[in-house]
Design brief:
Length: about 325
C-alpha cells in the first residue's frame, strides 16, 4: 500500500485550508479498503472534501476515497437503475445523466463533492433533494470490515440530514450509491423562482434536462463562488425553522422577511437573509469573509486558517441570536 508522509490537504478540501496530514493514502477499490481496515481502525476519511472545515493538522492516517466507476444495473421502459462508486465526482455524474437523458438529478448540477458523500447530508437545491432518487447505499462497516447495504428508508433522510450524520456517524465508509432515474417521462422541477426566470430569459417553454441543468449552472455561477477560485463549502449554515408565533413577531419589525412554510406551526427562514440583515454580507476580514453574493457562504480568499473561519461563524451565530433570537445551526462538519 502506498502511504505518504506529511502532505498538505489543501487540494483535498474545497475550502482550500492548508493543514498537514501525518500519513495519507488514496484508496481506489473496495478490495484495498477492506485490506486497509484489517490493520487500521483509527483514521480520518476524506472524499470530495466539500463539506468540511479543517481547523488543525490531522495527526493520524488520512484515507482518501477515490473508488471510481459507474454501472447500469438494469433498466425497463420507464426507469434506469444505476450504481455509482463513491469517488466519482458528483457534477460529472449529473452531466453524464443529462447527456444520456436520465432524469431526476438535473437540479443538483454543479454541487461540489463526490457521489459517496451526497447521501450523508442529503444534498439539495432548487426544489430537489437527492433522497428522492437514491434506492440504496452500500458501505463498509469499519468495526467488522463487512459490506452492508442501506435501503432508502434505512438512510433516514431529512433536510441536510441522514443516519450517517447521526447514529451511524463514524461507523461506516460509504462505497457506492444506487439511483433510480427516469428515461422518458421526466418529473421536471422548474417551479423554483430562479429557474423559472432563467428559462423565461432564454425563451424556453418546454425545457429538456439539459435546459434545466444549464439554468441551474447559470444561477449557481451567478451566486455561489467557484471553489477552484475561492475556497468555500457552499451553505455554511442550515436554514433555521422557527415557530409561526416567533415569525409573526419578527414580521412586525421586518416586513419583508422571507419564509417557506414547513408545517402548520413552523416556517423556514433563509439564513442568508438573516446574515445579510446583520451586516455580514460581503464583509472581508483579511484572508476570509462572507461571500458578497450569498451571505450563507463563508469563503477563504487564499491563506485563511480554518479556526479563523470557525470563529467568524460563531460570531455570526451570536449576532443572529442577539438580533433575532434564532439559533443558526452549522451545516459544514467542523474538524476540531
Ligand atoms: N437571501 C438574502 N441574502 C443572501 C442570500 C439569500 O436575502 O445573501 C434571501 C434571498 O433573497 C431569498 C432567500 O434568501 O429570498 C433564499 O435564497 P436562495 O434561493 O439563494 O437559497 P438559500 O435558502 O439561501 C438554499 C440551499 C442552497 C441551495 C439553494 C437553492 C440551504 C442551507 N441552502 O439556499 O444549498 O443551492 O437553497 O435551492 O438549504 C448548499 O447546501 O451548499 C447550498 C448552496
Amino acid at each position: 500500500m502506498n502511504f505518504q508522509q506529511n502532505i498538505s490537504l489543501k487540494n483535498y478540501n474545497t475550502f482550500s485550508i492548508n493543514v498537514n496530514a501525518e500519513r495519507f493514502i488514496s484508496i481506489d477499490s473496495v478490495y484495498l479498503l477492506k485490506q486497509l481496515l484489517k490493520t487500521e481502525k483509527n483514521f480520518f476519511l476524506i472524499s470530495g472534501g466539500s463539506n468540511m472545515l479543517l481547523t488543525k493538522d490531522i495527526n493520524k492516517l488520512v484515507v482518501h476515497i477515490d473508488i471510481k466507476g459507474i454501472s447500469i444495473d438494469r433498466e425497463d421502459t420507464k426507469d434506469v437503475y444505476i450504481t455509482v462508486n463513491a469517488g466519482e465526482n458528483w457534477h460529472e455524474f449529473v452531466l453524464w445523466c443529462v447527456s444520456n437523458n436520465y432524469g431526476g438529478i438535473e437540479n443538483l448540477s454543479l454541487i461540489p463533492g463526490n457521489v459517496g458523500t451526497c447521501p450523508i447530508q442529503n444534498i439539495g437545491a432548487y426544489g430537489v433533494e437527492v433522497k428522492d432518487t437514491i434506492t440504496k447505499v452500500e458501505a463498509l462497516e469499519i468495526e467488522s470490515g463487512k459490506l452492508v447495504q442501506f435501503s432508502n428508508e434505512e438512510c433516514n433522510f431529512g433536510y441536510r440530514n441522514s443516519i450517517f450524520k447521526n447514529v451511524a456517524k463514524g461507523k461506516y465508509i460509504l462505497t457506492s450509491v444506487s439511483f433510480k432515474l427516469t428515461k422518458n417521462e421526466h418529473n421536471l422541477n422548474t417551479s423554483y423562482g430562479a429557474i423559472e426566470t432563467e428559462l423565461a430569459l432564454n425563451e424556453i417553454t418546454k425545457p429538456s434536462l439539459k435546459n434545466i441543468s444549464d439554468a441551474v449552472i447559470a444561477i449557481r455561477k451567478s451566486k455561489l463562488p467557484d471553489p477552484k477560485k475561492i475556497g468555500n463549502s457552499g451553505s455554511f449554515f442550515k436554514n433555521p425553522v422557527i415557530s409561526k408565533e416567533q415569525f409573526i413577531k419578527l414580521q412586525k419589525e421586518y416586513i419583508n422577511i422571507p419564509s417557506y412554510p414547513i408545517t402548520k406551526e413552523t416556517l423556514k427562514v433563509p439564513a442568508g437573509w438573516l446574515i445579510e440583515q446583520s451586516g455580514f454580507k460581503g464583509k472581508r476580514f483579511g484572508e476570509y469573509g462572507v461571500h458578497e453574493k450569498q451571505a450563507l457562504v463563508l469563503v477563504n480568499y487564499g491563506n485563511a486558517k480554518g479556526i479563523e473561519i470557525y470563529q467568524l461563524a460563531q460570531k455570526i451565530q451570536e449576532t443572529i441570536f442577539e438580533k433575532f433570537e434564532i439559533s443558526l445551526e452549522i451545516e459544514v462538519n467542523i474538524i476540531k
